[in-house]
């Protein structure tokens, strides 16, 4: 059985360490500007008791938060599309392909609640809204 080496071959002539992809990722991370600003992420990290000294770590957490929010918004959009297609099918009429193509969607709690439930977040309306 061959022994594992700490080197891997990227090209035929150029050996690279296993940490090379991580180094490349960290270099790309410095150039990328996430939607959530680093100052906002740093504020919430400090308020939760975590002091991050490395700006790359803050940027990485910003990107992770952006991905999390994006996944929730995408799931809510899918719930909205399913709900609107079910309601249009139950009313018996279809407006044709143009009506469904130019449709604008609105994010509602009715769509957001099941999307957040998939991620383990429970939301309940206050009693005075019921």
Report a brief summary of the structure:
With 130 residues, the chain is mainly alpha-helical.
Could you characterize what this model shows?
This protein starts with 6 loop residues before the first strand and ends in a 13-residue tail after the last helix. The relative contact order is 0.08. The protein has five helices and two strands, in the order E-E-H-H-H-H-H. Strands 1-2 form a two-stranded antiparallel ribbon. It has 130 residues and is mainly α. It is elongated. Helix 2 packs across helix 3 and helix 3 crosses helix 5. A hairpin with a 5-residue loop joins strand 1 and strand 2.
Number of strands: 2
Our count of helices gives: 5
Q: Gap between N and C termini, in Å?
A: 67 Å
Shape: elongated
């Amino acid at each position: 059985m061959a022994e594992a080496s700490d080197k891997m071959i990227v090209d035929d002539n150029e050996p690279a360490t296993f940490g090379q992809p991580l180094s490349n990722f960290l270099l790309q991370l410095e150039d990328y500007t996430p939607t959530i600003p680093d100052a906002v992420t740093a504020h919430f990290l400090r308020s939760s008791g975590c002091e991050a000294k490395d700006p790359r770590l803050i940027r990485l957490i910003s990107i992770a938060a952006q991905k999390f929010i994006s996944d929730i918004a995408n799931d809510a959009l899918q719930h909205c599309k399913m709900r609107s297609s079910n309601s249009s099918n139950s009313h018996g009429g279809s407006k044709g392909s143009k009506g469904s193509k130019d449709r604008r969607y609105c994010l509602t709690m009715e769509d957001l609640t099941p999307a957040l439930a998939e991620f383990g977040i429970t939301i309940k309306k206050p009693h005075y809204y019921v």
